[in-house]
Amino acid sequence: MAQPVLVKNLAIGEGQPKIAVPLTAPTLSGLEEALDQLAECPCDLVEWRADCYGPIREPGSWKAPLALFRERIPHLPLLFTIRTAAEGGNLAISTEAYVQLLEEAMDSGAMDLADVELSRGSQVMERLVDRAHRKGIKVVGSCHDFQKTPSREALVRTLCAMQDLGCDLAKYAVMPQTEQDVLTLLAATLEMKEEHPRTPVITMSMGAMGAVTRIGGGRFGSAVTFATAGPASAPGQLPADLLAQVLPRV
Ligand SMILES: O=C1C[C@@](O)(C(=O)O)C[C@@H](O)[C@@H]1O
C-alpha cells in the first residue's frame, strides 16, 4: 500500500477517500460566501481554483484569498490549483507565467498542497516540486483529458511519470465515451494501487457516466474525491453532503 500523504491532520491515501470541495467564486466576496456554505458540509480538504478568480492575472492578487482561507479555515488542508485553459480550466497562460504565478504563491507558504500540471513539461514539474518541497508544500501532479479516456497502459504510464518526477500524489481526470472507458479508468487505478504504490493516486471519470467513480473509486485506490458545496468545478461532481453519506468504507 502507498504511504499516506500527511497534511495537517489528514492522512490522504489511508482509509476512506477524502472529500475535496473546490471553490470557484470569481470574487473575494464570492469566496467568503462559499466559505459560509462550506461550514455546513462534510469536507476534508478545500481546493481553491485560483484560475476562476477574476483578478488572478494581477500580480499578488492571490494574497487576499489565501489570507482569507488562513483566517477562516485554518484547520482544513488547502490545495492551490491553477487549472489552465489547455487542461479545461479558465486561465490561458504561458508556461513562463504559470511557473511564476505558482512559485510566487508557493513562496508565501500559505497552502498545504499545490496542483502542478504535467502537460507543462517534466522540467517544469521538477522545478515546481523542488520549490514546493522546500516550503513544506505537497505536490499533486495532475493531468486532464476532457475529450476521451486514454488506454489503461497510457493512464498507468502517465501516473507513474508523475510519481517519478517527485509528485506526492498523482491525479488523472478523464472523460468517458463509453461504459468500458469507466472500467478502464478503474482498472488503471487498481493497477497503480497493486503494482505502483509509491504514492497514492487520485482518479476520476468525469460526467454523469463516470459519476460512479466518484463514489466507488476509493475501493480501487483513488485517495480523493472532488464534490460540491456550491458550483461544480468539473462535470459529474456530486454534492459533498450526499457523498459523505454514501461513501463506502474502504
Ligand atoms: O483535477 C481536478 C479534478 C476535477 O477535474 C474533477 O473532475 O473532479 C475537479 C478539479 O477542480 C480538480 O482540480
From TrEMBL:
GO terms for biological process: 3,4-dihydroxybenzoate biosynthetic process; amino acid biosynthetic process; aromatic amino acid family biosynthetic process; chorismate biosynthetic process. The active site is at H144 (proton donor/acceptor), K171 (schiff-base intermediate with substrate). 3-dehydroquinate binds at E47, W48, R49, R83, R214, S233, Q237. CDD domains: DHQase_I (cd00502). GO terms for molecular function: 3-dehydroquinate dehydratase activity. Keywords: Amino-acid biosynthesis, Aromatic amino acid biosynthesis, Lyase, Schiff base. The keyword Ion transport does not apply. It catalyses: 3-dehydroquinate = 3-dehydroshikimate + H2O. Gene3D superfamilies: Aldolase class I. It comes from the Bacteria. Pfam families: DHquinase_I. Pathway: Metabolic intermediate biosynthesis; chorismate biosynthesis; chorismate from D-erythrose 4-phosphate and phosphoenolpyruvate: step 3/7. Signal peptide: none annotated. It is an enzyme of class 4 (lyase). InterPro entries: Aldolase_TIM, DHquinase_I, Type-I_3-dehydroquinase. Its EC number is 4.2.1.10. Belongs to the type-I 3-dehydroquinase family. Homodimer. Involved in the third step of the chorismate pathway, which leads to the biosynthesis of aromatic amino acids. Catalyzes the cis-dehydration of 3-dehydroquinate (DHQ) and introduces the first double bond of the aromatic ring to yield 3-dehydroshikimate. This is 3-dehydroquinate dehydratase. It comes from Acidaminococcus fermentans (strain ATCC 25085 / DSM 20731 / CCUG 9996 / CIP 106432 / VR4). The lineage of its organism: Bacteria, Bacillati, Bacillota, Negativicutes, Acidaminococcales. The gene is aroD.
